[in-house]
């Protein structure tokens, strides 16, 4: 009777030694039971009792990698159950400026590191099979919140993303892009410019309409965000803040400089959010060819159909920004 009480106590008594209500532990791919013991040791009060239950439940022979949730005052049966239940990560991403930043962001959330992710994203066989290249593969990633297992490999993460890409690009969306003379990748590239041009979501369809007008007229897009991207790419410094571009910037040789090149740049200059993508697929029909930042409605722009109108708006903005002492 006493032995039975002792046994029950060993099995069902709380056996954690952390004060938090809950915490996650991470078991790397390929780990064995010896590795798991080292991981769990800081959090378990009586490891002998845990091992007794783990052994009875065949856990040492069936270790799983992944992310596992431990709760304060769990008993040994609960702990073993917890170590068998891989809890996915809720991975949210948007507003990433380039593929390298995105890989770094994802690499903080799952087991695969940024280098292995970049290698998977740029795998030549994958790119060819899916109609991408190294410059435009960034268009594959649709900003959203996804459930991903922490121990997902770089290749499996990439494959999930291409599946989500195809789920987003329904026949209806593909047809809308086609009506604008764009492929899904081209629509994403243009959406990245629209995204960078304005944070005002209600204005984005109008900006998209202007750029589509320019594309149809075979005029350069003359989008300052593409020049800023080209400057950051040239300097290999995407942390710098550039609020103003100058004439020498506008004549810089770069495939991303839409002042000297007609058409779209070779790849997205950012990860456009869904509203920017929708703006390109559902643009405002207008006859505007020009726009510049407004000094009367901050965050918005002034639009013009003629160069003369635009020059008035542009001078007003130029005078204002000079008065603010903005030099770069």
Features:
9% strand; mainly alpha; 328 residues; Dna Ligase, domain 1; two-stranded antiparallel sheet
Describe this structure in words.
There is one protein chain. This protein has 328 residues and is mainly α. It has helices spanning 2-12, 33-40, 47-56, 76-82, 99-107, 114-121, 124-130, 154-168, 171-179, 184-197, 204-216, 224-235, 247-250, 274-281, 307-323; strands spanning 22-27, 66-71, 89-93, 144-148, 290-293, 301-304. Helix 10 (184-197) crosses helix 11. It is elongated, with a radius of gyration of 27 Å. The model has no long low-confidence stretch (mean pLDDT 92).
Helix content: 40-55%
Question: Runs with pLDDT <50, length 5+?
Answer: none
Number of helices, counting only DSSP H or I runs of 4 residues or more: 15
Number of strands: 6
Please state roughly what percent of the residues sit in beta strands, choosing from under 5%, 5-15%, 15-25%, 25-35%, 35-45% or over 45%: 5-15%
Rg over CA atoms, rounded to whole Å, is 27 Å
Strands side by side in the biggest sheet: 1-2
Question: What can be said about this structure in brief?
Answer:
The chain is mostly helical and 328 residues long. The protein is 46% helix and 9% strand.
């Amino acid at each position: 009777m006493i032995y039975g009480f002792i046994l029950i106590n060993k099995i069902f008594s709380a056996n954690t030694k952390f004060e938090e209500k809950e915490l996650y532990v991470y078991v790397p791919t390929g780990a064995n039971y010896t590795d798991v013991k080292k991981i769990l040791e800081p959090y378990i009060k009586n490891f002998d009792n845990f091992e007794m239950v783990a052994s009875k439940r065949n856990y040492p022979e069936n270790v799983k990698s992944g992310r596992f949730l431990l709760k304060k005052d769990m008993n040994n049966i609960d702990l073993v159950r917890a170590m068998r239940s891989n809890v996915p990560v809720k991975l949210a991403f948007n507003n990433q400026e380039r593929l390298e930043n995105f890989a770094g962001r994802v690499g903080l959330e799952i087991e695969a590191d940024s280098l292995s992710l970049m290698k998977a994203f740029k795998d030549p066989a994958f790119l060819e099979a899916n109609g991408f290249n190294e410059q435009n593969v960034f268009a594959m990633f649709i900003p959203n919140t996804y459930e991903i297992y922490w121990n997902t490999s770089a290749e499996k993460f990439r494959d999930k993303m291409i599946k989500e890409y195809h789920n987003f690009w329904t026949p209806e969306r593909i047809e809308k892009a086609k009506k604008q003379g764009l492929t899904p990748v081209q629509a994403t590239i243009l959406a990245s410019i629209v995204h960078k041009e304005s944070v005002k979501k209600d204005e984005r369809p109008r900006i998209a309409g202007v750029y589509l007008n320019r594309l149809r007229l075979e005029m350069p897009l003359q989008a300052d965000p593409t020049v800023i991207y080209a400057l950051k790419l040239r300097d290999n410094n995407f942390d710098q803040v550039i609020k103003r571009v100058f004439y020498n910037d506008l004549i810089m040789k770069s495939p991303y400089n839409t002042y000297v090149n007609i058409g779209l740049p070779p790849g997205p200059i950012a990860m456009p959010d869904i509203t920017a993508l929708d703006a390109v697929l559902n643009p405002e029909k207008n006859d505007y060819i020009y726009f510049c930042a407004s000094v009367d409605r901050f965050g918005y722009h002034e639009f013009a159909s003629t160069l003369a109108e635009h020059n008035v708006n542009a001078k007003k903005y130029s005078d204002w920004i000079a008065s603010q002492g903005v030099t770069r």
